[in-house]
Amino acid sequence: MFYKDERLALFIDGSNLYAAAKALGFDIDYKLLRKEFMRRGKLLRAFYYTALLENDEYSPIRPLVDWLNYNGFTMVTKPAKEYTDSMGRRKIKGNMDIELAVDAMELAPHVDHIVIFSGDGDFRPLVESIQRQGVRVSVVSTIRSHPPMISDDLRRQADNFIELEELKDVLGRPQREFSEKSEDVPSDH
């Protein structure tokens, strides 16, 4: 699926990857993830997309964002929007699809292979467009969760589908709770 001399770029939909790994019962070790894809090809960029709640004094994802920023990942963040739905429930909205799509389109002429870590079917037209530019596209998600975390359309469009559960031994670690006192950086958000 990968060629040693191909230029790679990773596009990680943070909340989608977190949900898929959580559904499979493990956490992502981002240091191992980056190392694995450096082994598979010439890794040019690894983007990580997430929305942050700006008004919270402590965000559980902040240590991860800071760690990724210092360890070879290009962080793309924006403030999450907080609102109350029609039932009076507090909801948070922080979709990063457009940012990921724009970055992937801009980088496509400079790479041979793009790996998207998301199962969101909204990315199907993006994958199709990138393929028309001569770039191979792999999608990492899971069909082994209930329900599956990848849309069938996205899976069919991609050149390669990589089952996240099959990467568990390479880039996973057991799930654990993170406390503010821990000196470890959390592996997810």
Care to describe what's here?
With 189 residues, this protein is of the alpha/beta class. The protein has one domain (7-79, 91-174): 5'-nuclease (Rossmann fold, 3-Layer(aba) Sandwich), CATH 3.40.50.1010. Helix content is 32%, strand content 28%. The strands form 3 sheets. The chain has a 6-stranded parallel beta sheet with strand order 4-3-1-7-8-9, with helices on both faces. Strands 2-10 form a two-stranded antiparallel sheet. The protein is globular. 33% of the residues are buried.
Task: Please write out the topology.
Elements: E1 7-13, H1 14-24, E2 26-28, H2 30-40, E3 42-52, H3 62-70, E4 74-79, E5 81-84, E6 90-93, H4 97-107, E7 113-117, H5 124-132, E8 136-141, H6 152-157, E9 160-163, H7 168-171, E10 172-174
Parallel strand pairs: 1-3, 1-7, 3-4, 7-8, 8-9
Antiparallel strand pairs: 2-10, 5-6
